[in-house]
Amino acid sequence: MTTLACGMTMEEEDEVVNIKEEGNMSTSPFPSPDIITFGESMGLLTARDTRGLEYAATLDKTFGGAESNLAIGVARLGHTSGWFGRLGNDPIGNMILKAIRGEGVDVSRAKLSDHEPTGLMIRENASGKASVHYYRKLSAASAITPDDLDPEYIAGAKILHVTGITAAISESGLATVEAAIHIAKQAGVKVSFDPNLRLKLWSADQARPVLLRLAEQADYFLPGLDEMKLLYNEDSDQKVLERLAAMDAVCIVKGGPDLTYVLADGTLAEVPYFKADQVLDTVGAGDGFCAGFLAGLLKGYTPQEATRLGNLTGSMVIQAVGDWEALPTWAQVEAKLNNVAHVER
């Protein structure tokens, strides 16, 4: 197991990098980022044409992962973020690690495994129907355990963001999410939770007790309306919102009719979407929203103001292709808010 450090000179790195067979990262001399998240980032291959994967002649190579997408989005919006997880010590794993680090995200707690591979997902759009095929069983990320956590690192953050994907990939993944939440709560760090229900990983019946239990521990709960209908086994929007209103967490519910619901302090507010000029790829919109919302909180915004920022960043993501490539910078957000005209040349 190789421990990695970043964001420092080679001389400084030599002093703090610690190579072990197993175990936690050594404590970094640098402060924790504002937001810390962890989970599985996977290699992503996308078929270029619409004939489907079976007949596609070429595949585009990149990567994706809800948590690393969010970390990149927060960094682009002007705040410090950290992502960690386990990747295979293979070409795809090294590509992912370098790309996340290149986006200004702290990856000093990430680990490369010589024993398990990096997970892979392949996306196709055949006859107008998008599908994702996962190759993640026994991946390096699924082998994550609470021993991979650095308690001091988490305790030094302002927000810990976790998702239901990590809880779904393995029993040790769920145990790691629960341990990280416990560390954060003990240290007074706010917990943000996006259930990210993935029905290719587990059924709604399997996910329901786990995700609802984790939601009860969150300070900020960021589900989609359709997700909550499945988890609550409820068709009525109103009844879903009533149940969420009973939670202690601030609940930000994505996927309303052209709006996002904000349930905070016993009140319900509706924040309209920003109109997108074009929709090219909806993948990553939720991660873009969450990045904008959490960045808004760091800027001192109210939940409603932060939701407005999240709606804007989510709308900007869907106007380009890619899981994370279209996540906006703060300069781009300001230009959009201020109606700054684009100068082509």
UniProtKB/TrEMBL annotation:
InterPro entries for the chain: Carb_kinase_PfkB-like, Carboh/pur_kinase_PfkB_CS, PfkB_dom, Ribokinase-like
Pfam families: PfkB
Domain of life of the native organism: Bacteria
Keywords: Kinase, Transferase
GO molecular function: kinase activity
Domain Carbohydrate kinase PfkB residues, every copy: 34-329
Family: Belongs to the carbohydrate kinase PfkB family.
PANTHER family assigned: 2-DEHYDRO-3-DEOXYGLUCONOKINASE_2-DEHYDRO-3-DEOXYGALACTONOKINASE, SUGAR KINASE
Protein name as annotated: Sugar kinase
Organism in which the protein naturally occurs: Paenibacillus silvae
